């Protein structure tokens, strides 16, 4: 299945091709312990983390607060040192480098933050110039570079403004421009949109996506929102209790989540959970006169086939559509339908196997009285 | 006491003493800032896990600052007379008075600068580290500029305190407005002298505070301005 998505520039094919590229960030067997406070146990922030970020890709790490996301992203530029394992960025093991050598590596890694972390005492221009000043760049070089970055992020007219005079979205644009000032190969994004409203979030994510596509900057982002991952990432990892519990291609993880944590993150995504009028009446036990409520995930070869019509004809049943959504992830069609199947256990089992034969995933969510929606 | 003769002489006296006070306060403020600012920055950045982590040195400097600040100024001024003589060549006069004033004020400045620097958002330090800045660059380009409004207000407070302290150095032969007020206003019982001394001191403090507030506002970019 390869439907070119209209309106999108060609994206790097997700999955195989991306994974085949060499990793620009590689975490191998990484663990991080924080020393005990008073006479408590040491805190195991991360354990056994293996993660590859292919060069030129966008990888999103999702987790709840306290899952270890912040620690993980800070390992990459050496703001945190792992207790065990290796952190290799562009061929250099940053976990072994002393602080003064790390500084040179950090200039090759941009970082943006949830609360922007702009200097209130500096104008937009001077904030973006800071990494270049740190590097010791000459004034004409700084001016040329900063001006280009200001127009890249669309802030040419804010040159002499101070952060206090900017909106949240504008501040994050300054943050992005600053992170790109030294032409880094890698951009780390620490919850960069978590303090922004949905519309601004969307525009910042589009900007990051464009930077990844057009400048070839590899992006590693951490977030607690599936929508962020879905919007720009090709690869993802789910972090829970300091461990990577699931990782892979975003489409695969979204459409076939394996771990309960992943499922619970996805539950919030529209269309996956049954609508409230169904959920409220949902029973765990089957009984005569009940419809079986089944969630069907449409993906792969048959995603766009009229499967429901076929199964209705074949089994001679009236499938009741209760909810759902049809969408695309990374340009690949993907749908979720919640349906009610009448006629007891026998029919619903035949229904499920019919769909299974067409490579569609189903899950029985429960049972509702057939007359419930009459 | 005839009024016309009195006002001319008194004006001359008050004028001279005002100049002495300005001289002492200006010089000791400058010296206390030069010593206190770096110390304050050190205090704010040298605890465990900080930029220039040196917990032991931090503890020692902190303890010395506390000791100096808890000694009453009059005791401090008298007890360091040998040191004053060593630095200024004499222990009497306005120039000599600058020494105890400086010694009393620099720990105060250091603590004020420390608290201003500690107010700087940790996220900014992290951002600067992430862009590869060295600790010295972080101090120069992040901590000092970001803490500047607080530093200016702190220095203003220190100068105002120094104006108060300078009134005490008359006791150790320092001269200035305080000395004039005690000797003429109190000991010779000339309330009009005392009155003028107090008025000049109030005006001086007011002027310093207003200038400090204005400057702090000027350098504060955290406030939105139309």
UniProtKB/TrEMBL annotation, chain B:
Keywords annotated in UniProt: Cell membrane, Membrane, Transmembrane, Transmembrane helix, Transport
Record has Transmembrane as a keyword: yes
Presence of keyword NADP: no
UniProt xrefs under Gene3D superfamilies: MetI-like
Domain of life: Bacteria
Family (UniProt): Belongs to the binding-protein-dependent transport system permease family.
Protein name (record): D-methionine transport system permease protein
